[in-house]
Amino acid sequence: MNNFTGKTLAGFLNGRELLDNWLDQHLSVSLRRGLTTEAEMRSQFASFMEVFLDTLRSSDTLDANRPEWAPVRARLGEISEQRTRQGFTPVETAAFVFSLKHPLYTQLCVAFGDDMGALADANWSINLLLDALGLYTTEVFQRSREATIARQREELLELSTPVVELWEGILALPLVGTLDSARTQVVMESLLQRIVETGAAVAIIDITGVPTVDTLVAQHLMKTVAAARLMGTDCIISGIRPQIALTVVHLGVDLCGITTRASLSDAFIVALRIAQAASPGIKAHNA
Question: Could you tell me the fold of the domain covering 164-278?
């Protein structure tokens, strides 16, 4: 077991020379790929090196998970996110940290000379530290990617549930694809918001584009209808194909209290009557 601390190792290092040697390894490869400029790369490396050496000089530990190394992890997280946006892969970002091993080892060889035992201990300590920091970059990348996927999924859900006003007092919500719990929440929020904005008397929920209807889908539909009714809006479910009707019957799902129609056009005719009854000023026009 070695007794090296950050303070001990910092005394053997030349920060300017260390930065130059480390940066030289990356400039030609990274610039050739066109992912960044030399100025941006120098800024990344210099900012990390500054925080790294400052932490090293003041730390009694080389454990990257300790609070003393929080500034280094924070700066590394910023660089990881920046390099992700620039197009670097997680492996390349981890290599950004791992490649610091060789310049550090070179300086330690000079500092310890023939004391091979001390050199081995110091190099082992540095390797453990940089390995932990390199793996941390992959964690940052994973979290960033998951956040991006979640955000894009929410955006797609919103785009896939458009609520359109077919007529004065009549809304239509065409559903396409699978209706799960997350999407049901978005559907209800979108529909209720449009009801508030338009004061619609009727909402048509068209499931022509829903491939299958099982018990869960039926429950989601009923929740949406119930939420709309609480807002004072009648709901019609259209797109009830023969196979869906048979499935609903076999599942024992009770849709008796909900108006259903085979097609959107049929549902629209019913909706016009309801809207007219709710607001006599609304006129229906024959095509």
Answer: Transcription Regulator spoIIAA (3.30.750)
Give residue limits of the domains in the chain.
Answer: 6-157, 164-278
Q: Which CATH code of 1.10.490, 3.40.50, 1.20.120, 1.10.150 fits the domain covering 6-157?
A: 1.10.490
Q: Which helix (H) or strand (E) holds 176?
A: strand 170-176
Mean pLDDT, residues 49-60 taken together: 93
How far is CA 33 from each of CA 1, 13, 29, 48, 69, rounded to the nearest angstrom? Answer: 42, 31, 7, 22, 32
Smallest CA-to-CA distance from 284 within 170, 194, 171 is with 170
∠ CA(89), CA(94), CA(100), 5° rounding?
135
Start-to-end CA distance of the chain, whole Å, equals 88
Question: What's the Cα-to-Cα distance from 210 to each of 144, 186, 240, 244, rounded to whole Å?
Answer: 32, 16, 10, 10
- Residue whose C-alpha is closest to residue 257's, from 207, 209, 216, 221: 221
Give the pLDDT score at 32.
54
pLDDT digits (tens, 9 = 90+) for 138-158: 898 888 888 878 877 776 665
Element holding 138 (H helix, E strand):
helix 116-159
User: What distance in Å separates the CA atoms of residue 272 and residue 202, rounded to the nearest whole number?
Assistant: 8
User: pLDDT class for 168, splitting at 50, 70, 90?
Assistant: very high
Residue with tokens 């024959």: 286
- List, for residues 232-280, the tens digit of each pLDDT value: 999 999 999 888 888 888 888 777 788 999 999 999 999 999 998 887 7
Strands 202-209 and 234-238: parallel
